[in-house]
Design goal:
Strand content: under 5%
Largest sheet: none
Number of helices: 3
Number of strands: 0
């Protein structure tokens, strides 16, 4: 996984950040579902977690997507 991430970072830092974000979000979702089945979280907690992760990913996508425009010198 780290080799793939390093290759993506060389090719496109934005893609590497998005792949890493997706991997962390997927791991977090697995944790949340596991905690819900064990009774430590409710279905509403899992729903709130999914919504929060989606919001963070949209914000991250906006930052990464707009980075070239902000760093370009005219």
């Amino acid at each position: 996984m780290l080799g793939l991430l390093a290759t993506l970072f060389v090719l496109s830092p934005a893609m590497a950040v998005l792949v890493l974000s997706a991997a962390v979000a997927g791991g977090g979702l697995v944790w949340a579902v596991h905690a819900a089945t064990a009774g430590r979280l409710t279905a509403g907690d899992v729903t709130a977690f999914v919504a929060a992760v989606a919001g963070v990913q949209v914000a991250l996508l906006g930052l990464v997507g707009g980075w070239p425009r902000r760093t370009r010198r005219c």
